[in-house]
């Protein structure tokens, strides 16, 4: 059956990179033998070719006790040859190509990343007083692709463009360059425009060379907390 003309604009496009967006809510990954991928369980929406999945592989089990995402398996290992399409309940997806760089990602915003990248669960220093028990992120390092999710179209702020610090609500943070300097700031004004609560607002200040990815959402329930 021929494809209806009305659907032509949604057809799969030729592969131009290892990882690229298909629209704003989906990522397409070009899978090849020997180029494995870690992805969020349940994120696969379609694939072409031959792709296999392994839930809770050994590299993930070593860290699963710290990763409290509310899911039994925080990551699955994908391998094979073909095209893999991933999404996360209609969230916006951002593809980042690291070039010997490191990125700190909120665990609930991590959709997929190249398996050859170095990674690990890390406590975010300096945020415990803002988040009660403290927060952890996933640090990803090396050269390769990472796919992030955002609740709405995110903004990417280049912190190195000026001397002023960039302040972000901690509940809206998606990811940031690991080399940035961080500090906390507290506002006691009841009419504060940043943050939520009964009179207090908290922000994280970033400075240095790098960028911060911020989502248009301040739902603290999205945040993953570590055991105290």
UniProtKB/TrEMBL annotation:
Matching PANTHER family: ALTERED INHERITANCE OF MITOCHONDRIA PROTEIN 24, MITOCHONDRIAL (PTHR38074:SF1)
SUPFAM superfamilies on file: TRAP-like
Origin species: Streptomyces cacaoi
Pfam family, one: AIM24
Protein name (record): AIM24 family protein
Gene3D superfamilies per the UniProt record, alphabetical: Mitochondrial biogenesis AIM24
């Amino acid at each position: 059956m021929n494809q209806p003309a009305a659907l032509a604009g949604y057809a799969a496009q030729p592969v131009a990179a290892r990882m690229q967006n298909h629209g704003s809510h989906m990522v397409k990954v070009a899978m090849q033998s020997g180029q494995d991928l870690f992805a969020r369980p349940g994120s696969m929406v379609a694939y072409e070719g031959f792709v296999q999945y392994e839930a809770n592989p050994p590299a993930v089990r070593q860290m699963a006790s710290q990763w409290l995402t509310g899911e039994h398996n925080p990551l699955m290992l994908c391998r094979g040859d073909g095209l893999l399409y991933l999404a996360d309940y209609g969230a916006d997806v951002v593809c980042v190509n690291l070039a010997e760089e490191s990125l700190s990602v909120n665990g609930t915003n991590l959709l997929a990343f190249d398996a050859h990248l170095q990674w690990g669960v890390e406590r975010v220093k300096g945020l415990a007083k803002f988040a009660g028990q403290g927060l952890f992120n996933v640090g990803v390092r090396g050269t390769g692709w990472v796919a992030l999710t955002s609740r709405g179209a995110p903004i990417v702020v280049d912190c190195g463009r000026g001397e002023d610090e960039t302040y972000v609500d901690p509940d809206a943070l998606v990811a940031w360059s690991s080399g940035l300097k961080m500090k906390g700031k507290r506002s006691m004004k009841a009419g504060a425009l940043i943050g939520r609560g009964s009179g207090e607002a908290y922000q994280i200040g970033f400075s240095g060379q790098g960028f911060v990815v911020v989502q248009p959402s301040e739902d603290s329930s999205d945040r993953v907390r570590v055991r105290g």
